[in-house]
Amino acid sequence: MVVFSGLSQDDDAAYGDLAAAVGDLRDAADGRTVEPSPWLADSLGFMLTGSKSAYGSVQMAILCGDVAAPRGPRTYWRDVQQARVQDPLFGPVTNNIGPCAFWDPPRERPTTIRDDLPALLVNATGDPRTVYAGARAVHRDWPSSRLVTLRGADQHAVFGVYGSNCADAAVNAYLATGRLPAADVSCAARPVPAP
Fold first, then answer.
1. Nearest 5 degrees, angle CA 182-CA 184-CA 186?
2. Model-level pTM?
3. Angle at Cα 97 formed by Cα 10 and Cα 19, nearest 5°?
4. What are the pLDDT digits (tens) for 148-181?
């Protein structure tokens, strides 16, 4: 989960935090006493104690409210083994048993969204959490939507986080006017600085 969380932002500072965390974990695994880096301490605090879990709690409520989850551990074991073949690192993490298996099934019928209502979708092509293929599928099935694509960035949470003037301008214009762009918007990732 540390690696999964650490790969959600595509910038040097985030990669530096992840590298320091991996170093701390390596040192701890080698038996050394480690004072975790601030990012690792914060991540472990959230994962192990639930501190500052407002975002995670809301996210779980949304995910668990979408559809009933399987209850049997054997289902998850099978899914982990199948996922491990294609994605040995994250397959087991993303297919393992989670909180939704212990919650009551959703009490409401799924919300029907009219596909004639406007929607602005924003996604990066390399988003490690909400994959771009999913954004394209929603866009295809929602004819009145527009898709803002951040190309070449391995980034989760584009608007106001990544620093793309192009993507931020498209979203800000929509929020200010309520009007969708005339066509889909394609934005390039920040250039990688030369070494």
1. 130
2. 0.70
3. 30
4. 999 999 988 899 989 999 999 999 999 999 999 9
* In contact, 123 and 135? CB cutoff 8 Å: yes
CA 50 vs CA 18, 42, 46, 56, 69: distances in Å: 20, 10, 5, 9, 22
Q: 90: burial class by Cβ within 10 Å (0-12, 13-18, 19+)?
A: middle
Measured at the alpha carbon of residue 5, what is the angle toward residues 168 and 185, in degrees to the nearest 5?
25
150: left (phi over 0), alpha (psi -120 to 50) or beta: beta
Give 2-30 pLDDT, tens digit per residue: 887 888 888 788 889 999 999 999 999 99
* 128 Rama class: left (phi>0) / alpha (psi -120 to 50) / beta: alpha
Block residue for tokens 């490690």: 128
Rounded alpha-carbon distances, angstroms, from residue 40 to 35, 37, 94, 168, 176: 10, 5, 20, 29, 37
Task: Work out the number of other CB atoms within 10 angstroms of the CB of residue 160.
Answer: 11
β-sheet bridge partners, residue 150: 124, 187
